[in-house]
Amino acid sequence: MKAGFRQSMAWVHTWGGLLVGWVLFFMFLTGTLGYFDTEIDRWMKPELPVAHASLADTVLAAQQRLEQQAPVAERWFISPPTNRDAPNLRIFWQMLPAEEGGRGKRGNEILDSQTALPVTARASGGGQTLYQMHYALHYLPINFAYWLVGICSMFMLVAIITGIIIHKKIFKDFFTFRPRKGQRSWLDMHNVLSVVALPFHIMITYSGLIFFAFTYMPLIVASSYGLGEDGERAFFDELFAEEHKLDRANIPAPMASLTEMVRIAEKTWGEGQLRYLDISHPNDAHARVAIGSQLNSPLRASGKLVFDGVSGKLLANQAPTTSVPRAVRDTLLGLHEGLFAGPILRWLYFFSGLLGTAMIATGMILWTVKRSPQQLKQANGPDFGFRLVESLNLGTIVGLPIGIAVYFWANRLLPITMETRAAWEVHTLFLAWLAAMLYPLMLSKVRAKTASTQTRLNFTAWIHESWAAAAAFALLPVINALTTDRHLLNSLPAGDWVFAGFDLTVLAVGLLFAYLALKLQARVQKHSRLAEFANRSTRFAATEEVMP
Amino acid sequence: MARSAQPSHNLNRYRRKIALRVLAAVFGGYALANVVAIILSFLLPMSTSNAVMTSLLLSFAIYTAAVLWVFSVKSVHKAWLGLVVPSVVLGALAALIKLMEMAG
């Protein structure tokens, strides 16, 4: 549509990227925090005990509680604290449906594995709420949110591919950075951030779409299995077929020992390699117990040992996956979530996510930097669209981090007994973000007529918000020290890496924002000195002219 | 964009063309991706559930390719034709396969 193929692709890249950039920034940042969702959960519920009962005792405790809460159930699920994403014993149950074809009531609890009683901790959204926002957003009807996220992900995918196409010298540009060259530097930075983690960007975007493929592409399933939920269920039953599963017998029967099954599982896979117990029709003659193994590779599926729940006999040792297309899907999802990643790979995931977030941010800043010389020359100031993009950029790139820091502050400062505590944690995030969005607009209300004051106001807003973000993050360890005893002076000597890691990370983020603020201040000072100099020399020139 | 230099009716024409192309990319691309994936799911030599899963995995790549193509061709007409014709032909073919399956 433009003169050449590359120009057309550049047009798509620029405008497609700009349109959804702010949502993508939100998705990338909250999603990146998701790589430490469990650690954030633990920081936000500091009173949760550390589990240290034996696995056999843990499973017994879970079973005891489930017998109390849901003796006649369709399903029990026990997730013992055997891996990073399960720091505490967690149980889940689903009751029998009240009527035929319905869905039974569900419940879940975190248990103390010694007392078999639920542990009490402050109400908090934790890392899970932050992480869930990256695909479910917030305040929006869930299906609408999924579609919005899907559309933005498609834009992202198109932006990545067009970005590669318009990028002639991918290898050379990777080693190119020209600092302090205005637009050129922003472009270089955008390129480096994009190329250095390109495989991650492609993987994360494509696999993100695959998570909701059934929602986004319902017709492909419907063409073979029929429309609606029935068709979808038929497809799932076939693709994720579970052998050895029976319908309920409706004859009560006592369960065989779960600890014996756990022992067999540990003997098969090794100690600590057991991820969950999934019990269908507990206390029924057709009870089945499936024990799943840990995820030690990107393949997001567990190997399973299936036991007869009444006789305790081992019925099958199932491989994690049954078909190649399913394995491809499970691997894409596994790569996206990174549940298998150990500490080093997890940090690599985290930094890759931050690179993606920064790639989006630099792309959006580049859009304004490229247009600002022409915009600032306009007689009646920059266009509304330009000012809007500038404000949204600042309001999101610095404003969302401020919101996230405030979310952590709220976790420590809201009254423990407050009924809507968890909800208000999230409200404070969005209120702070909103304030950060409105702040630059408010500053430009007092807006001066000249372009140079406009630029200065814009810089002032960036500097103010960067200092706000710096304070909000750097003071978090202090707030933590004032409200808990798991602060750096205790957590570091004790080797409490979840708390020390969180505090040190937010401290580093705070320092980074302080550095940004100082950099921006230095630039403004340099510019105003230059302007003053220019002013004086024109005055000097003017006086010369009047001289005879 | 050198739009300030253009008279306003040119600007409107430009906007209309962009809008038509975006619509073609978003909706036409979606339709084509679905139809191609459905045909694939019928023809791939594997079990139904595996063929459907494979097509689902590929559908987003097909969609992306269609979007890029829409923005790379010279005229909007060509972009629309290039999406509508294969969508209709492949759609008819898919319906035919389905009918034959149901009959035999």
Describe the model.
The complex is a heterodimer of chains A (548) and B (104). By secondary structure, chain A is an alpha+beta fold. In chain A, 63% of the residues lie in helices and 8% in strands. Chain A contains 21 helices and seven strands. Chain A has a seven-stranded antiparallel beta sheet, covered by helices on one side. In chain A, a hairpin with a 5-residue loop joins strand 6 and strand 7 (314-318). In chain A, helix 1 packs antiparallel against helix 4 (126-136) and helix 14 (343-377) packs antiparallel against helix 15. The longest helix of chain A is centred in the last third of the chain and has 50 residues, at 497-546. Chain A is globular and about 95 Å long. The relative contact order of chain A is 0.09. With 104 residues, chain B is an all-alpha fold. Chain B has helices spanning 8-43, 48-72, 76-103. The termini of chain B are far apart. Classes of the chains: A alpha+beta (548), B mainly alpha (104). Chain A binds chain B through residues 1, 5, 8-9, 11-12, 154, 157-158, 161-162, 165, 206, 209-210, 213-214, 217, 219-221, 223-225, 235, 238-239, 323-326, 328-329, 332, and chain B through 17, 21, 33-34, 37-38, 41-42, 46-57, 59-61, 63-64, 67-68, 71-74, 76, 94, 98.
